[in-house]
């Protein structure tokens, strides 16, 4: 992941009771509040590692600590251009918290600003992936065993609890594991698929699915993306030189429109960044802009992007309205290589989300224009990015309308927890991962209590 980290806001936990009704939606309030999760957001900042600084603004979430434990990572000169442009526009440019260490910490090195962040592994350990921040350390305690190259095929159960899980190793051999407590965290789509594929005589529609809620209300991140080009010739030679620097981050967000229509509607977060520095990614992007060309024309087109300009982009993160037309089910015909039905994912975007995305994109475009970018454009589409998935096993107090209870234990099996993004009934107008981490720590406390009887 890229590590753009944002907390949810208190009202994100009670969308239904806070905002206007959206027709044909399944929006519900969460069974927990921001106050329940706040200590865990703070825990993630120090244990997992989040850097930044808490700048006061109208939508800043309440914090139990004054600031981040890790100071912000180094910033590109363009961040100060963005700050000035926002000042002129009376927008509130905010530092983006990053799940990246700005200094060495125990067994992890601070960021080395290679500039290849996102979509790749991080060689220094600065990026706060679960592996760097948690799993490596857990293994060192001697209390954690990782069975790599293992595919969990199904969970078996009796009427009350999971009895064992079956996994396949890389030699294609089947094994069974028994435990007191099972925690499923295979990412939203796969967790739903696994439960649906684990149907048995007690759970004919899939494990923990007598409510028929498994796979329902799948969430992505609504919004979209946009970009503009900084042509070196439009700037002084010194500025043009500064623009070419690779490594330090832009780290700027806007949350001025987190709410719209005087607080009646939910809005979005905008994050700003440079186009990915990787040469292959840049060339691919260059090729995909404008008409399809090949041969020498293509070569010139790619060269133009590398030599004449630098592309600056934005990403909009808006709530994905949960509704009946977005869900995971099993395919009737196609199976994976272990003979298990693959997931069939129905992606239906709610028209409301497209409207919000278009409204927010106008503000983001204005910032790029004010900074001196040319060819500014945005693309708000019903097709979501695949990297942000949540929902499918929502938590809630009503066992007929949700899969998990408020501690993310399934209502129907008393030793099965789900701790990936599946629990979220609504996703907030931010990327999800800080919330997934925070909630996992909260559920871990509940599991400890459970184990202590
Ligand atoms: C390129 C990219 C950039 C991103 N950038 C950001 C960002 O800037 N900010 C942000 O908040 N989020 C970002 N994300 C999203 C973030 O990575 C996810 O939200 C997060 O990882 C989801 O956590 P999870 O626990 O739900 O699932 P995962 O982290 O995907 O964990 C699921 C694990 O289960 C394993 N698994 C799945 N099925 C099985 C099975 N059957 N048997 C055994 N193991 C299984 C998988 O291998 C995986 O290790 C990004 C993602 C990508 C891909
Ligand atoms: S820039 Fe490099 S060192 Fe820093 S977090 Fe990204 S990948 Fe890791």
Structure description:
This protein has helices at 15-18, 34-49, 77-89, 130-140, 188-197, 237-243, 279-288, 295-307, 351-370, 433-451, and strands spanning 94-95, 151-157, 162-168, 174-177, 182-184, 216-219, 222-231, 252-254, 259-260, 265-266, 268-274, 309-318, 327-335, 341-346, 374-379, 390-392, 416-418. The chain has a six-stranded antiparallel beta sheet. The protein has a three-stranded antiparallel beta sheet with strand order 2-3-4. The model has no long low-confidence stretch (mean pLDDT 96). A hairpin with a 5-residue loop joins strand 13 and strand 14 (341-346). With 453 residues, it is of the alpha+beta class. It binds flavin-adenine dinucleotide and iron/sulfur cluster. Iron/sulfur cluster (SF4) is lined by residues 100, 111-117, 122, 124, 126-127. The site of flavin-adenine dinucleotide (FAD) has 22 residues, from strand 2, helix 5 and helix 10.
Please list the strands of the largest sheet in the order they lie side by side: 1-8-11-12-7-15
Radius of gyration: 23 Å
Give the integer mean of the pLDDT values.
Answer: 96
Could you list the spans in which at least 5 consecutive residues all have pLDDT below 50? none
Q: How is the main sheet built?
A: 6 strands, antiparallel
């Amino acid at each position: 992941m890229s590590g753009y980290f944002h907390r949810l806001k208190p009202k994100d936990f009670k969308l239904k009771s806070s905002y206007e009704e959206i027709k044909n939606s399944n929006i519900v309030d969460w069974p927990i509040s921001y106050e329940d999760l706040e200590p865990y957001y703070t825990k993630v900042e120090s244990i997992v590692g989040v850097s930044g600084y808490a700048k006061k603004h109208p939508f800043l979430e309440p914090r139990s600590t004054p600031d981040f434990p890790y100071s912000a990572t180094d910033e590109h000169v363009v961040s100060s251009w963005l700050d000035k442009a926002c000042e002129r526009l009376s927008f509130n440019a905010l530092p983006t918290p990053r799940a990246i260490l700005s200094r060495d910490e125990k067994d992890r090195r601070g960021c080395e600003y290679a500039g290849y962040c996102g979509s790749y592994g991080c060689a220094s350990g600065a990026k706060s992936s679960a592996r760097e921040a948690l799993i490596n350390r857990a293994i060192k305690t001697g209390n954690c065993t990782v069975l790599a190259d293992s595919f969990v095929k199904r969970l078996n159960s009796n009427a009350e609890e999971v009895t064992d899980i079956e996994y396949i190793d890389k030699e294609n051999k089947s094994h069974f594991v028994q435990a007191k407590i099972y925690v499923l965290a295979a990412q939203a789509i796969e967790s739903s698929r696994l439960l649906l594929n684990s149907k048995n005589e007690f759970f004919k529609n899939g494990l923990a699915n007598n409510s028929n809620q498994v796979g329902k209300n799948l969430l992505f991140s609504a919004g979209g993306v946009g970009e503009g080009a900084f042509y070196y010739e439009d700037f002084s030679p010194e500025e043009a030189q500064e623009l070419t620097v690779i490594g330090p981050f832009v780290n700027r967000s806007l949350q001025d429109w987190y709410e719209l229509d005087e607080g009646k509607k939910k809005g979005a977060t905008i994050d700003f960044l440079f186009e990915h520095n990787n040469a292959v990614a840049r060339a691919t992007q260059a090729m995909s802009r404008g008409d399809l060309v090949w041969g020498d024309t293509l070569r010139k087109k790619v060269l133009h992007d590398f030599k004449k300009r630098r592309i600056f982009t934005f990403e909009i993160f808006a709530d994905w309205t949960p509704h009946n037309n977005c869900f995971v089910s099993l395919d009737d015909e196609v199976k994976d290589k272990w003979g298990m039905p693959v997931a069939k994912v129905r992606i239906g975007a709610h028209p409301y989300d497209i409207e919000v995305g278009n409204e927010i994109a106008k503000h983001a475009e204005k910032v790029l224009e004010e900074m001196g970018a040319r060819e500014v454009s945005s693309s708000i589409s019903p097709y979501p990015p695949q990297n942000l998935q949540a929902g499918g096993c929502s938590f809630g107090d009503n066992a007929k309308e949700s899969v998990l209870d408020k501690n993310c234990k399934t209502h129907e099996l008393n030793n099965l927890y789900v701790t990936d993004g599946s629990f979220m009934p609504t996703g907030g107008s931010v990327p999800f991962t800080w919330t997934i981490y925070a909630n996992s720590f909260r559920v871990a406390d509940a599991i400890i209590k459970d184990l202590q009887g």
